[in-house]
Amino acid sequence: MDFLDPKINQYAEDHTSPENSVLQALNRETYANVLMPRMLSGHIQGRILAMISKMLRPRRILEIGTYTGYSALCFAEGLTEDGVLHTIDINEELETMVRNYIGQAGLENKIKFHIGNALEIIPTLDETFDLVFLDADKENYAAYYDLVIDKLSTGGIIVADNVLWSGKVLDEKELAKDVETKALNEFNKKVLADPRVENVLMPVRDGLNVIRKK
Ligand code: SAH
Ligand code: CA
Q1: Which helix (H) or strand (E) holds 53?
Q2: 53-57 long-range contacts, CB within 8 A, separation 24+
Q3: Which of 54, 113, 129, 185 could form a disulfide with 78 if both were Cys (CB 3.0 to 4.6 A apart)?
Q4: 3 Cβ partners below 8 Å, 6+ apart?
Q5: Residue 133 Cα to chain centre, angstroms
Q6: β-pairing, 129-134 with 152-161?
Q7: Taking the chain (214 residues) in consecutive chunks of 10 residues, what is each chunk's mean pLDDT?
Q8: Which of 31, 86, 89, 144 to mutate to test the pocket of ligand 1 (most atoms within 8 A of CB)?
Q9: How far is CA 75 from the centre of its chain?
């Protein structure tokens, strides 16, 4: 579902800095060869993630849900000189492709790629994160939030993607029967009610919940 008039979307894309050549190639290869390419963040959202990272200048970033690595490369643009991004994905089939693009971007020393279940890997990471991207299985967003909130620095940001779930969060039937829709709606309510944070649900693409720890 498009929330915006496609022409407005196109105009916004046409007037946003282009993707660099590595991101362009990764975007193309994902659409050509990988299942469910719509999961890739893409041009506009990628530039938003890079911009957030450049505004924050994080030393430690955690990404939950690497997929083909597009959003990881975007976030890494804003890392400090000594910065590190940890990214986790359960799908080992994408490993070769992800490592290839991390190499092409010259980020082998800055991106630590973990393969496995994020619910098990996050507790093993002994870091304080300045920026976290929640983008894996939607049923576990609340669990990921609980696992990362104490590892987040004061003023640190969690960005949670797809929180509008193509508009299904408004649909009573979907809320009653679809576990992902229900989980995302409950996640958004949990964040709103948590006195430790302030947030803005940005109606960008499929919905980005930007959450700041006080
Ligand atoms: N962040 C990417 C898209 C991620 S798609 C981008 O914006 O381009 C979601 C990913 O979450 C998929 O690759 C899927 O394999 C992964 N995933 C699903 N469940 C997971 C889990 N329990 N632990 C880690 N990764 C998981
Ligand atoms: Ca996503």
Answers
A1: helix 43-56
A2: 53/77, 53/78, 53/79, 53/131, 54/78, 56/130, 56/131, 56/157
A3: 54
A4: 164, 167, 203, 205
A5: 4
A6: parallel
A7: 86 97 98 96 97 98 98 98 98 97 98 98 98 98 98 98 97 97 98 98 96 98
A8: 89
A9: 9
